[in-house]
Write a structure and sequence with these properties.
Blueprint lengths: L9 H16 L8 H52 L4 H14 L11 H15 L2 H7 L5 H28 L6 H26 L1 H25 L3
Helix pairs in contact: 1-2, 1-7, 1-8, 2-3, 2-6, 2-7, 3-5, 4-6, 7-8
């Protein structure tokens, strides 16, 4: 019985473990095998943890994307202001310069701050631009109100993602990374389950042949996917 290719992805390892657990649950005749029961109890635990770790990684990625979006909107605001400042229309260039005085208190350097500092600075910037005097100048520059609205939305979206991330993280297991959990799960499948099942297929074919054949098929299917992806 071939082992699961070590190049398997984290998400694929999670999927394989879920399929193997489902298969085991469909073979009640194996419930009396205490060694196999211990293997699958460990697999259930590891599979749950790796699922949580994958979820954490995805939430972290979404948080990073939300932060990148607000950086983009801040730079766009800067570019619009600079465009109007350079225009040969005195009323608009004066309005833009007045707003630039507000913007320059924060500047694009804000994007290099940590999440908390950046959020605080952006909230302050948006409040300053909402002042009546600043709003008069904003109204003289087409597109400026929309740019501020987009920055406001990006900041609000980031805050929502951060709350979701921190709420999840406060209750999630923090013991191991997804990569570490993948390694543990791969060792459990290759060095424990497959070796044991192969042995038991020879010792007790009546009870283990069907189970072993399906385990083998699951592993072979995934190895084919990995080989195809790797160009082999």
């Amino acid at each position: 019985m071939k082992k699961l290719d070590s190049r398997v992805r984290i998400t694929e390892t999670d999927d394989i473990s879920d399929r193997l657990i489902l298969l085991y649950d469909k073979h009640p005749n194996l419930a009396a095998d205490l060694f196999l029961d211990r293997i699958f109890n460990r697999m259930r635990t590891q599979s749950l943890h790796i699922t949580e770790a994958i979820k954490h990684n995805r939430m972290q990625s979404k948080l990073g994307a939300a932060d990148a979006l607000r950086n983009q909107k801040l730079r766009r605001l800067r570019d619009i202001l600079n465009g109007y400042r350079a225009m040969p229309v005195p009323a608009q260039s004066m309005a833009a310069n007045a707003l630039w005085t507000v913007f320059s208190k924060y500047g694009v350097k804000t994007v290099y701050r940590n999440y908390a500092s950046k959020s605080s600075l952006l909230e302050s910037l948006l409040l300053d631009f909402a002042e009546p005097g600043a709003q008069t100048h904003v109204g003289m520059l087409p597109g400026m109100a929309e740019a501020l609205s987009e920055l406001r939305q990006a900041q609000s979206d980031f805050t929502a993602e951060r709350i979701a991330y921190e709420t999840y993280w406060a209750h999630a297991a923090k013991e191991k990374t997804a990569s570490e959990l993948k390694k543990t799960l791969l060792e459990l499948i290759n060095d424990k389950l497959l070796l044991y099942v192969e042995t038991m297929r020879m010792v007790d074919p009546d009870n283990y042949t069907s189970f072993a054949a399906t385990v083998e098929q699951i592993i072979e299917e995934m190895n084919t996917v990995i080989a195809r992806r790797s160009g082999r």
